[in-house]
TrEMBL record:
<dbReference type="InterPro" id="IPR007110">
    <property type="entry name" value="Ig-like_dom"/>
</dbReference>
<dbReference type="GO" id="GO:0007411">
    <property type="term" value="P:axon guidance"/>
</dbReference>
<dbReference type="GO" id="GO:0007156">
    <property type="term" value="P:homophilic cell adhesion via plasma membrane adhesion molecules"/>
</dbReference>
<dbReference type="InterPro" id="IPR003598">
    <property type="entry name" value="Ig_sub2"/>
</dbReference>
<keyword id="KW-0325">Glycoprotein</keyword>
<dbReference type="InterPro" id="IPR003599">
    <property type="entry name" value="Ig_sub"/>
</dbReference>
<keyword id="KW-0393">Immunoglobulin domain</keyword>
<dbReference type="Pfam" id="PF07679">
    <property type="entry name" value="I-set"/>
</dbReference>
<feature type="domain" description="Ig-like">
    <location>
        <begin position="41"/>
        <end position="128"/>
    </location>
</feature>
<dbReference type="InterPro" id="IPR013783">
    <property type="entry name" value="Ig-like_fold"/>
</dbReference>
<dbReference type="GO" id="GO:0005886">
    <property type="term" value="C:plasma membrane"/>
</dbReference>
<dbReference type="GO" id="GO:0030424">
    <property type="term" value="C:axon"/>
</dbReference>
<dbReference type="InterPro" id="IPR036179">
    <property type="entry name" value="Ig-like_dom_sf"/>
</dbReference>
<dbReference type="GO" id="GO:0070593">
    <property type="term" value="P:dendrite self-avoidance"/>
</dbReference>
<keyword id="KW-0472">Membrane</keyword>
<dbReference type="InterPro" id="IPR013098">
    <property type="entry name" value="Ig_I-set"/>
</dbReference>
<dbReference type="GO" id="GO:0098632">
    <property type="term" value="F:cell-cell adhesion mediator activity"/>
</dbReference>
Length: 190
């Protein structure tokens, strides 16, 4: 394949590499520079969200994406409690924390710790639980004679601290009420 693999890179491997392809008709060259990157974890460019919202009974993924080379090892805490993988909590290989079946007890300060052979860093965010959004009245199947008007209803309950938006789609395509105002009309009742 003309492939060069270098395992367990060190700083001595950095430099300009040249591939030479040769046959009876001649020789061609291609060059590439290999840079070796090494840095302690830092959250300066990508800190954790300060406020994370999660729906009651739902699931949340809290991302932890520091810049680091080599890839860091991750650990998490809630307050002063060190978190470990369990039935509701999982720490992913990329550092993200997943919590399922969210309850009020899951609220609090979560800290991600990242460490490699160059150093360590951490970032913290606060998880808050909201009431889950639920469809309380779903649209019903409707038979309408061609040329007549049809009305479909959708009612939902939601956490009062959050905004709610209704999006309608037809056969998987979102309806643009501004472009199709002559055909579709949206009535929002509070």
């Amino acid at each position: 394949k003309g492939e060069l693999r270098i395992q367990s890179l060190t700083f001595d491997d950095a430099g300009m590499y040249q591939c030479i392809a040769e046959n009876t008709h001649g020789i061609i060259y291609a060059n590439a520079e290999l840079k070796i990157v090494a840095s302690p974890p830092t959250f300066e460019l990508n800190p954790m969200k300060k406020k994370i919202l999660a729906a009651k009974g739902g699931r949340v993924i809290i991302e932890c994406k520091p810049k680091a080379a080599p890839k860091p090892k991750f650990s998490w805490s809630k307050g002063t409690e060190l978190l470990v993988n369990g039935s509701r909590i999982r720490i992913w290989d990329d550092g993200s924390l997943e919590i399922v079946n969210i309850t009020k007890l899951d609220e609090g300060r979560y800290t991600c710790f990242a460490e490699n052979n160059r150093g360590k860093a951490n970032s913290t965010g606060v998880l808050e639980m909201t009431e889950a959004t639920r469809i309380t009245l779903a649209p019903l199947n409707v038979d309408v004679t061609v040329g007549e008007n049809a009305t479909m209803q959708c009612i939902a309950s939601h956490d009062p601290t959050l905004d709610l938006t209704f999006i309608w789609s037809l056969n998987g395509f979102v309806i643009d009420f501004e472009k199709e105002h002559e055909h579709y009309e949206r009535n929002v009742m509070v």
